[in-house]
Amino acid sequence: MRESRRIMLTVSYDGTAYAGWQRQLNAPSVQAALERALLSLTGEAAAVTGASRTDAGVHALGQAAHFDTRSSIPAEKFSFALNTRLPDDVRVVDARLAAPDFHARYGARGKTYRYQIHNSPHASALYRHQRAHVIPTLDAALMRNAGRDVLGEHDFRAFAAAGCEAKSTVREITEAGLRRDGELIELTVSGRSFLYNMVRILAGSLIYIGMGKLPPDALAAALRSGNRLDLGFTAPAHGLTLMKVRYTAHEEN
Amino acid sequence: MRESRRIMLTVSYDGTAYAGWQRQLNAPSVQAALERALLSLTGEAAAVTGASRTDAGVHALGQAAHFDTRSSIPAEKFSFALNTRLPDDVRVVDARLAAPDFHARYGARGKTYRYQIHNSPHASALYRHQRAHVIPTLDAALMRNAGRDVLGEHDFRAFAAAGCEAKSTVREITEAGLRRDGELIELTVSGRSFLYNMVRILAGSLIYIGMGKLPPDALAAALRSGNRLDLGFTAPAHGLTLMKVRYTAHEEN
Description:
The structure is a homodimer.
Chain A: E1 5-13, H1 30-42, E2 49-50, E3 59-69, H2 78-83, E4 90-98, E5 110-119, E6 132-134, H3 140-147, E7 152-155, E8 170-181, E9 184-191, H4 198-211, H5 218-225, E10 240-246, H6 249-252
Parallel strand pairs in A: 3-10, 5-6
Antiparallel strand pairs in A: 1-3, 1-4, 2-3, 5-9, 5-10, 7-8, 8-9
Helix pairs in contact in A: 3-4
């Protein structure tokens, strides 16, 4: 019998039709789609572990995942072979051999998310599944400045959804950029890891700051108070895309 | 009875679910969706005339259209009122009073289209309905230079689809820009008007030039020969978006 190998995948998906990354009993998930394609390809019932368990409607351009296989398929061929078996809203964009102890979730050293807002009196027809619609004209410069308040290591207790089960709520944000391009406002956030709904609560709070519904220093104040009620709404899932998961160099090669 | 007014609309749509702009007997069209929404709103069976009869799968961010109405609804309220009656893949993003002789199609002084290419070994999950997938790595600088050959007034006979019924095949291209942003290659083309499939044939020919399947001077040669066979394939419809239709200033106000 062949030895088991661990394969790392980079996966992109349109989350619109999925109940999220994680396998569920009665709803379609990206994880189940990948596992089904793997079963069809290798005959093995392999579990696919993702770096981030993205919510229903959330997209990915660079989700990372791993699985183990005893098949003889060359590691880098898995992307092409799986794509012929996957629905067209899920694409494996890279596959490579990983170290036996590589773990897509526990080994992740950083993640980048983007949040897209369609800032216009009317919703977007073309980007309706990728951008959250905000009607009042947002002050992007104000939002950009406010975003800087979350940079660095802080207790992000106020930015955690009610159901958050993290032991510690201390996180480090290494990037919080914001740009406007016509009706599009795009927030880019990087950090080692995030609390549940943290990026969407940050996006919703920045939207409130940009509308004047929260003061420009609301993020800093919420970091001090630790109170979720000092922040804005949880921005809708479909505006969020997982862009990249980072590992230490030797794990990525 | 109220006097008839002519209203100009700016319309954006995701063309994925439509057989094109134009009303058809047994297939959904953007025109029919707008006319149905107008009937529901005003009780009038008004014909909506579009600037461009975009093909099945082609998108629009700035299609222009007009219709006549005797309703008392203020011109600028039509966007909001129609949007509540339209499917979410069609949005009226602007509505205004037009001159009685304004004509969205015959009055158009210029149009801008963009063509998006996903240049990657794997198709895009997230942008699969908006970008044409091209696997071989394209030489964008070569494509950008070649694109300049179509600038100005030329006989574009070679760039016309077989079914083209235009009396003259002379057209003027005022812009042919190309940029690469990672896996995205975006072509922007402006002109007063275009022959049927002209932008898609230009996009397909630039793709062939970028792949080395056509020489860098193929566009210039085809302008001289007038032969469709000297050009590349007709790039798929879903990569194309009508960005803007231009009118003389007094018609736009």
